[in-house]
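Risk register update: the risk that structure generation would not scale has been downgraded. Supporting records follow, first protein first.
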Amino acid sequence: MAAILEARGLWKSFGDFDALKGVDFTLNTGELVFVIGPSGSGKSTMLRCFNRLEEPTEGSVMFDGVNLMDRSVDINLMRRRLGMVFQQFNLYPHLTARDNVTLALRKVLGKARAEANEIAEAMLDRVGLGDKADSHPGELSGGQQQRVAIARALALEPTVMLFDEPTSALDPELVGSVLQVMQQLREAGMTMVVVSHEMRFARAAADRVIFMADGQILEEGTPEKIFESPEHARTREFMQEIGQ
């Protein structure tokens, strides 16, 4: 498998605090990599450095052969291909689900409203919300809002999807609907990096699980290896804490 995303020696400092300490990360085409670890371990910061929502202090990020740290790179173009779904849904409350999805299609890609609407409706259908196109975010459950956010990212036809704690703001009974969409993306061959505490989903869906603590990747391997026989003491400790 060919690497589509590669970070080398990634450091991110906030003042005196080093959130990332020389992280090396590789994502292969078609792979689902799950990133786990205690709160504050640098998982979300790493994800945000991949598309320069956070500017790395040091290191390199290569995406599909392009050095994202090169100042001549059109980072907005690259972000369209590196789709991102956040913990908070970031939907516009005054817009319908359809209009939330079409906004980037029209403003960024310059598509006509009719074509944008067609794409939006297809994407909403894909995430199981074809009947909610005219609903506003306030009329939708948290799980439905997150699925609209996923549809919005998918509409731009990304090569890779980054998920940053996509279910952590949801009530437990709403989590399943979002994970189901992610599972469907997985089955369709979407390349994905998922930062999440949904360990059951990690076991079932991930090709590789990465364990982070204190700004470093301490261990990685198959779900079986990481969950059943972790080698690093810190990984074992984490598994005991979460009851795995």
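Supporting record for the second protein:
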Amino acid sequence: MANIEDIQKAVEQGNMESVHTLLDQYLLSGDPDEQYELSEWLAEIGFIEESIKVLEHLQFIFPDEGQLSIDRANRLIEVDREDEALNALMEISKDDEMYPQALVTLADLFQLQGLLEAAENRLNEAIELLPDEPLLMQAKAELLLDSGRYLESAKIYQDLKDQRIELEGVNLSERLAEVYSAGAAYEEALPHYNEALKDVKQPDVVFGAAFAAFQTRQYEMAVRWLDELIEIDPDYFSAYFLRAQSLNMSEDYKGAYAAIQEGIARNEFDKELYLFAGKLALKLGDQEAGVDYLRQAIALDPEYMEAIYTLVSFFHAEEKDEDVLELAETVVANEDDWTGLYPMIAESYERTEQFSKAAAYFDKAYPAFSDDSAFLEKYARFLLEEGNRERAIELIKELQHLEPENPDWVDWLQSVE
């Protein structure tokens, strides 16, 4: 007859046909306690369907054992057999000592399905049965967090913390910090981050503290946390970008530029790093490096709108019209909607005396920029140069409507008429 060792050896060898044959034999003769341990081991190594088979066998022998129904339901959820899991849980009687745990598992299932109200109802029922069980309160706090009810979630965690409750593997200060951060209450999150980081400094928690400091404009504090994070984990790539942003907001542009270059050296495939490096280089007056960084960002993502817009805007401001048209035409040729580029393309065509193309892009830009007085003025002047006086007058009248207090438009209209 088969035994556990035979099954484990077949699993290690990857012989699934043998696994199933041995499993069938073992279930006819094995000890139920050992069979339960086998189901746990099979689940741990990812053999979920085989684990379910063992549990179904045990449930046939012990039909009133609620723990088996809960275990089987959890396995069924793992393999997306949610309807069967629901049926297994609903079979557990309210008189069963495992009923509160069944309610928690039901809540998890409903939460997974997005039925948050139903999940909360099951947790509330479990809490009524076991009001002094902190794990239930933690489960409700996490459900409220998932529901976007951040203050209610934080209140539960604060109550647990005030009661000096200890939950295995859970730092209540950390959870409070993350709940407040999830609700964008960064000022409230910071003290909890500081407390959570007094003993053990987990990289994700340090980054959370730095981000909260950044959001509350405490840039020096953010840089200190990020320096510490990079020392702990030099490959925590997000730290370099946030550090550069913090230095930039502190108006330490050279420091920010050095920080973003360090980030690129660590992670050469992050387009956002190249974009930010390009902007900083241009701000520092290094046009060649700025253009190069922006081009590298676009090379990583040819449809990276922000990088394309930044580079086109720079070329446009410098009246490098050939560069504007080379870059913009490539993008527009991909049939993407790049409306924001149209006014600049139109002006570049106008300055290079390609007037028919300029007219086409002014016209294409108009729907999106009809309430932009600067665009309307440029478009009207172009139309007058092209001899389209009637359409130009229409645009000048639109300028009057947008800015009735501006006398320039009245004078201009009178001179044109």
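The chain has a mean pLDDT of 91. On this basis the risk owner (M.S.) recommends closing the item.
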